[in-house]
């Protein structure tokens, strides 16, 4: 067991991990962070996405120990005080149906809008193309992301 | 889900530290950069290393630098780092275009081009570009440093010229002396992310020089020498393209699997060649579709 | 159309904020505490084999293992419409991946490790994968005891064979009908298996507490039906319904895959083996593919006769369904779609044979469309070909033969009011039907395809739905129901109905997710019937509350009840304009009278709804008599595509779909269903491609090789159209539409490909590869079927 520490949603945290513990599992089982979900375990679906040092990553493919000394941001961190303009836009557009893909898309879109605050529709589609959604057909999600720049 | 297999984890802080561990574990250790290939394989029970050596502690490996007409790509440089780099986009557009086709944002933020060539899957997207740019792989091991030309790097599916006591320090690509244009054409099953069912990288250089490399249609990615021989020195005409298309079946040996039949791969490979080479030449001449635009 | 304040409006989803903030809890998000145990399943590597022995001794010695169970511990059968399924395989396995044993351990890694050490000895026996081959005399029999299986009275299994059920519909006289025809056309279509690919995999946690009470938390569309099946299967252990509780929080997608019972029963059973500990069974993505329900494969032989003027005179179809080895739910897919296999047409002479056939591919069953998505590919491909052959416009052909209100369907019952013609006209107009378009690029071809479709909820004739409503001190409401929010917007629709009657705005209404201890009965969230059935129950509960409110006000103020009305959360009186009483002032505390005493008290309401005109007493030889379906929802759809003639790749330029929702309770959510359902359907048409090896093992149980749509794959333009021809017995005239958006997607693509290229592809999926190779090889018809890959 090794003790690792990192900043999680703005707070310094420590946890003990084995080398073969996955970051997704440690977030969900030991740190109480439930927003990243298990979808495929192979990085193909994007449900487990969080921001690690500002970049959207698949936590199902990262060993927890690799997060030592890093900074992580999840949907819980975005929702602490006021919601972000992106979250408000998703709510306004009623974008999500079953909601299981929402955290992954929210984190991906959060990184994307940071880098590209006034995107074209094609760019938005490409940015979230690694996040699978079975319910919505994506249209209301894309509209919500595009609507953030307008506000 | 969870990984049952147990292993030690190290994060050395020096090159020597990495090599020491490689020697200690005698081929039973695996290097970890982005992990997007290794972690899946450990989960699937296809890799069971005794130790995982995380090289992310060696910040010098994150170097992406263009100096003296040579691009150095350290082994921690991710595909998104390449895409975000202006110098790669402008000076090595074929590499830029290939990188954009890899997986998705969340994978590209972690997956490294060095990791891609070390995994050496036959469908690797970085293969064709590196082969036509004639890149070199900088390797460090217990015997010191050596340079392995990319043309000698791939030995078979998931097999490379790397020895058990060595690791890849980086990749160097010399800027082609002549003006050039390129294209990377990739066959997938739809618009979403996919592993290449056929991948073709083409570099057209001023003075009627052509370099082509395929991936996903043979046990290793490789240069299409017969087609190059046919085309070199000649300016591109429709009949020359037709003639070259007919050589495609001699250059590749696609298989049938769940992704595509060999007949379809063969058929589309010809189409990809035709569209790819036209686009490469157009781009050489400052015209043509912008890099990143899909040709099939 | 009457204007309502909430019904018919795009009211914001009640659950959106929870889902956007990460507050929404799904089963795996619930904390079960340090006593939670983890199960790992030992699965069969063979499609058909006898189990000779199981040795778990080495696995048992692994530290952290609590218990290992096998079929011997649970020799109990279960099944929704037929009991042909076991919790764990008994003497034999019937598909690759079937559960043979389970290791329960203190942590997941230990469970994984130990499961690998369980040794099972198998004796493989011949397997059968092809549904038509399974009908042959010498085919391996998947269920030798089929003749003894209990089943609902409207199923007809044939003991000694692989025929689990056979729906026969005979109306009029098809021989005569074909003789009357000027043109008869016959062909075969093949539709492979597909996977739901819900984003949340199946999961269930079971806990048998020390008092003997069993609780199961499940990602489920059917908590009450699950409780019923658990009680039935575990009756030998002494359980009955009140001893079992099923709780279903938010569900990350269902699409029919989380209906009935599949792996959830494993958690229920395992819980009984480790009393006092909760046990989690969570499917990995690969298990999600091969050990839940797949969508069934079907081979469809169809023959239609028409007159020169396009009138259909006879329709004959034989559907051979590969339902896998456990058809306890899938047999109803065969039955339901069999009854309606004509599609929404007026046809005097009909012969339908729909066979539910056992095979050794994984268990298959309900999937959005419930057999209609599968078989409509054949019907609507065929109808377009016929129209073309007699020189009649595809859309005109549908207009001419489209079923009208009062026409008799294949099994004799009358068709309900419906907007089919309106849907046809609106879709044809939107897609510019009749205008041939060509691409600017000579390497591309543009084509348009059209289809009509229908579906009725497929349910037993006596399904019930109920609701409780209660007030809170601030005048807000809780609606307590057991329908499930699987993403379709159900919670919001129920709130809108209650809001309309009680004038409490939806923002002040909560709709509670199912808990069989507290929430009253609802059969299952399937069949696109919940807005209709539960909406009626919620409406009745709200009306009961309104009645009670008027009762109390009358008692205290002596105003006539029929002069009272509700508005803006107040009670008002038509005869006394100054009178108004805020609901929140009395719905908990009652109304104070002149002498200081109170009347009323806390106000609650309940509603129950069950259709009283449905019956499943049809003649087994003809399906006539009886009234098995409550009503049909109809629609029309069209697509315009552009095909790259060299690569075969299809780009969807425009997709249009019209649905007759009766009354769109929430038009925004219906439009969202159309976006999602059409895309899901297009994926089955274009690139979802399930493959098996010759031994029945699925080759692509992952998203790397089973491709579902990404944001880059959506059509350039989607136009959803809502038609409203009221359903007389629906709440505000509503009927369901949840499954329907997907149903026409595949045939409109096939028809558009033919329009663009003159090539008819009769087998799904219609991949770029199939198109390109057909063009390359000059083929006009393609029926290549690659689902089982030969070496």
Write the layout of secondary structure elements.
The complex is a heterotrimer of chains A (151), B (296) and C (791).
Chain A: E1 2-8, E2 11-17, H1 23-29, E3 49-52, E4 55-58, E5 71-73, H2 75-78, H3 85-93, H4 102-115, H5 121-127, H6 139-150
Parallel strand pairs in A: 1-5
Antiparallel strand pairs in A: 1-2, 3-4, 3-5
Helix pairs in contact in A: 3-6
Chain B: E1 8-10, H1 15-25, E2 29-32, H2 38-43, E3 51-54, E4 64-67, E5 70-74, H3 79-84, H4 86-91, H5 93-100, H6 105-108, H7 113-119, H8 126-133, E6 136-141, E7 144-149, E8 154-156, E9 159-160, E10 166-174, E11 180-187, E12 198-205, E13 209-215, E14 222-223, H9 225-231, H10 238-251, H11 262-284
Chain C: H1 16-21, E1 37-43, E2 49-55, H2 57-60, E3 65-70, E4 77-78, E5 85-86, E6 92-93, E7 99-105, H3 108-115, E8 119-124, E9 163-171, H4 174-180, E10 183-191, E11 203-208, E12 214-218, H5 223-233, E13 244-247, H6 264-273, E14 278-282, H7 285-290, E15 294-295, E16 297-306, E17 312-322, H8 330-339, E18 349-357, E19 364-365, H9 372-389, H10 394-401, H11 420-430, E20 444-455, E21 465-471, E22 477-481, H12 490-502, E23 509-512, H13 530-557, E24 564-567, E25 570-573, E26 576-582, E27 591-592, E28 598-599, E29 604-609, E30 633-644, E31 650-660, H14 667-686, E32 718-723, H15 745-757, E33 760-761, H16 768-776, E34 781-782
Parallel strand pairs in C: 1-14, 12-13, 15-19, 17-18, 22-23, 31-32, 33-34
Antiparallel strand pairs in C: 1-7, 2-6, 2-8, 3-7, 4-5, 9-18, 10-16, 11-12, 11-14, 16-17, 20-30, 21-22, 21-29, 24-25, 25-26, 27-28, 30-31
Helix pairs in contact in C: 9-15, 12-13, 14-15
Features:
heterotrimer, A: 151 residues, alpha+beta, Ubiquitin-like (UB roll), DNA polymerase, domain 1, 2 domains, 5-stranded mixed beta sheet, 35% helix, 17% strand, B: 296 residues, Uridine Diphospho-n-acetylenolpyruvylglucosamine Reductase, domain 2, Uridine Diphospho-n-acetylenolpyruvylglucosamine Reductase, domain 3, Enolase-like, domain 1, 5-stranded antiparallel beta sheet, 4-stranded antiparallel beta sheet, 11 helices, 34% helix
